[in-house]
């Protein structure tokens, strides 16, 4: 298995809680600047320690992840991350200009020497408010944008695009991706509709904010559908995101995680604004599996329960290897995308270093 | 007669009805169906018949649309030129779908006195099912050409589009998302919009004239 390090650009100062969009009246530019430097240095440490990938993600109007355009952050990483691949998980393509996304990812692939992983995401439900896009059209916009981005990467002659949601008279992007025909594409596949689309188009899949039990079910469905479309996904086609904290002692790991807020009930971005979430749900955004999709976005439990659900890897390298092996056996994933508590100072840095040097080489053998 | 709620064509009301006609070209009778007023579009269908597609019905709201049975024989291109004269067409945009694209390009390379521009819909003029003799001649075609390809088409795959762009000096390709070979039946609104824009502006269609203003 491979390991990716996901550091959110979390605002390090006080900010309002339990609200979205988050008001900025307590915002300090100095603290924001320090927060971004912290993210860059944590990624650099992860690269030096041995992580296979570093991961960036798009979120809006909130201090927990100040990367509204993760591709800008990735642009900085192309120059500071020397070895690891840079996973864009990802731009939220239904709310963006797909041609611009294709251009930016091509730039990043060129700037990084072909080290980009292209996650193409739908975003979280609340993010449809960000650029005033109707969530009822999210899935159709997404499917069209994926095909348009692929065409922009691979068509060698200028072409127009007559879509349902996007229309362009002439597209011919420069630079082009270094990886041919294009960087590996991953999409989120928690829902059966996404599993169908990934299987039909031979795309990789990723899971986040879920349990290993739910992800396993969705991954089985994806593999079954892929077989029907005449191909067999490998473990490298499946990314699983979960929390991680690596320590010298198992109890210390759990205590740290509780102290960082990882054991307290948390609503998460989506469920914070009930009006927005219910309106998005009514729009048909969640698809035919709505109850499961909403349930997985609701509050999380205490740390030991989260270990059982495969939502965190926590403890010593030996303990973490056991937890990771169980997830691999259940899910068949080839990449663990590890979201860390970025705000614990030296404890965060030790965790990154320990995981990179002591766990990653053993994960490669799993 | 009560309207069928599922029949969108019955609801538009704007589209003129197609009238049947027949012309004689070189002793052969060619059927056609025509509707609408405005710039002339002469359309040759993939099946060689004279049945209008949904996109052509939409275009008839602002154009003179003539769906012409495809001339046959050794000199079909000359037959097509005579047909344009017989239809009392001053100048037109010539539209060819699927296999009819070959004849349309052949005619445009011959007597183009009545042809302003060419539109190809899922053309199979070059490539595996095409005419090898035609390909080297396309460099001489100076008329503006718009070629549409469906992203799900396996007969005229969108990967063939780039060849037309390479060969035609004034060629423009547009991929029609989620359409297979019968582009103008599957995505009629999308097809009609880009064809109308191209007929009106030729290569200047690259610049949009659609307002982005939401509230004045």
Structure explained in plain terms:
The complex is a heterodimer of chains A (366) and B (216). In chain A, the strands form two sheets. Chain A has an eight-stranded parallel barrel, surrounded by eight helices. Chain A is of the alpha/beta class. Chain A has 13 helices and eleven strands. With 216 residues, chain B is of the alpha/beta class. Chain B has seven helices and eight strands. Chain B has an eight-stranded mixed sheet, sandwiched between helices. In chain B, a hairpin with a 2-residue loop joins strand 1 and strand 2. The longest helix of chain B has 14 residues. Chain B is globular. The N and C termini of chain B lie far apart (42 Å). Chains A and B meet through helix 4 and strand 5 of A and helix 5, strand 8 and helix 7 of B.
Order of the strands making up the biggest sheet of chain B:
1-2-4-3-5-6-7-8
Tally the helices of chain A: what do you get?
Answer: 13
Distance between the termini of chain A: 6 Å
Helix amount of chain B: 25-40%
Low-confidence stretches of chain B: 1-12
Query: Which residue ranges of chain A are poorly predicted, with pLDDT under 50 across at least 5 consecutive positions?
Result: none
Mean pLDDT of chain A: 93
Largest inter-chain contact set: A-B, 17 and 23 residues
Q: What amount of the residues of chain B lies in strands?
A: 15-25%
């Amino acid at each position: 298995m491979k390991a990716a390090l996901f550091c959110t650009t979390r605002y390090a100062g006080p900010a309002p809680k339990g609200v979205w969009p988050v008001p900025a009246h307590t915002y300090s530019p100095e603290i924001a600047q320090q927060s971004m430097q912290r993210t860059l240095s944590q990624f650099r440490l992860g690269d030096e320690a041995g992580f296979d990938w570093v991961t960036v993600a798009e979120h809006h109007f909130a201090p927990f992840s100040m990367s509204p355009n993760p591709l800008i952050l990735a642009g900085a990483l192309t120059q500071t991350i020397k070895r690891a691949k840079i996973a864009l998980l990802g731009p939220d393509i239904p709310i963006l200009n797909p041609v611009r996304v294709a251009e930016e990812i091509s730039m990043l692939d060129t700037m990084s020497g072909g080290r980009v992983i292209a996650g193409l995401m739908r975003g979280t439900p609340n993010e449809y408010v960000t650029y005033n896009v109707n969530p009822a059209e999210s899935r159709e916009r997404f499917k069209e944008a994926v095909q348009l981005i692929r065409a922009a990467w691979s068509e060698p002659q200028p072409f127009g695009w007559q879509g349902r949601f996007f229309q362009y008279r002439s597209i011919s992007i420069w630079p082009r991706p270094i990886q041919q025909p294009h960087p590996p594409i991953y999409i989120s596949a928690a829902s059966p509709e996404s599993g169908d689309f990934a299987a039909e188009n031979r795309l990789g899949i990723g899971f986040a904010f879920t349990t290993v039990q739910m992800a396993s079910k969705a991954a089985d469905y994806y593999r079954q559908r892929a077989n029907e479309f005449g191909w067999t996904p490998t473990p490298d086609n499946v990314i699983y995101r979960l929390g991680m904290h690596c320590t010298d002692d198992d109890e210390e790991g759990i205590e740290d995680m509780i102290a960082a807020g990882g054991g307290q009930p948390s609503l998460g971005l989506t469920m914070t604004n009930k009006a927005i979430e219910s309106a998005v749900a009514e729009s048909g955004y969640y698809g035919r599996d709505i109850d499961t999709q909403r349930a997985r976005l609701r509050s999380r439990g205490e740390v030991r329960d989260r270990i059982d659900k495969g939502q965190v890897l926590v403890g010593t390298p030996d303990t973490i290897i056991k937890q990771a092996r169980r997830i691999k056996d259940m899910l068949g994933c080839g990449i663990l995308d590890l979201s860390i508590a970025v705000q614990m100072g030296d404890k965060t840095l030790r965790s990154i270093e320990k995981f990179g040097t002591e766990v990653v080489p053993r994960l490669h053998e799993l | 007669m009560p309207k069928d709620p599922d029949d969108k064509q019955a609801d538009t009301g704007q589209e003129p009805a197609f009238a049947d006609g027949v012309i004689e070209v070189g002793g052969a009778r060619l059927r056609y169906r025509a509707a609408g007023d405005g710039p002339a579009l002469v359309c040759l269908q993939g099946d060689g018949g004279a049945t209008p597609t949904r996109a052509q019905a939409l275009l008839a709201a602002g154009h003179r649309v003539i769906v012409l049975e495809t001339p046959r024989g050794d000199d079909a291109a000359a037959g097509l030129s005579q047909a344009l004269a017989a239809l009392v067409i001053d100048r037109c945009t010539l539209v060819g779908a699927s296999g009819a694209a070959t004849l349309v390009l052949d005619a445009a390379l011959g007597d183009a006195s009545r042809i302003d521009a060419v539109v190809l819909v899922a053309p199979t003029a070059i490539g595996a099912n095409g005419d090898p003799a035609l390909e080297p001649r396309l460099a001489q075609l100076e008329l503006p050409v718009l070629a549409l390809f469906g992203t799900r088409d396996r007969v005229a795959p969108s990967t063939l589009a780039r060849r037309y762009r390479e060969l035609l000096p004034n060629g423009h390709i547009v991929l029609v998302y989620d359409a297979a070979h019968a582009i103008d039946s599957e995505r009629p609104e999308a097809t009609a919009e880009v064809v109308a824009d191209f007929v009106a502006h030729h290569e200047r269609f690259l610049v949009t004239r659609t307002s982005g203003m939401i509230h004045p």
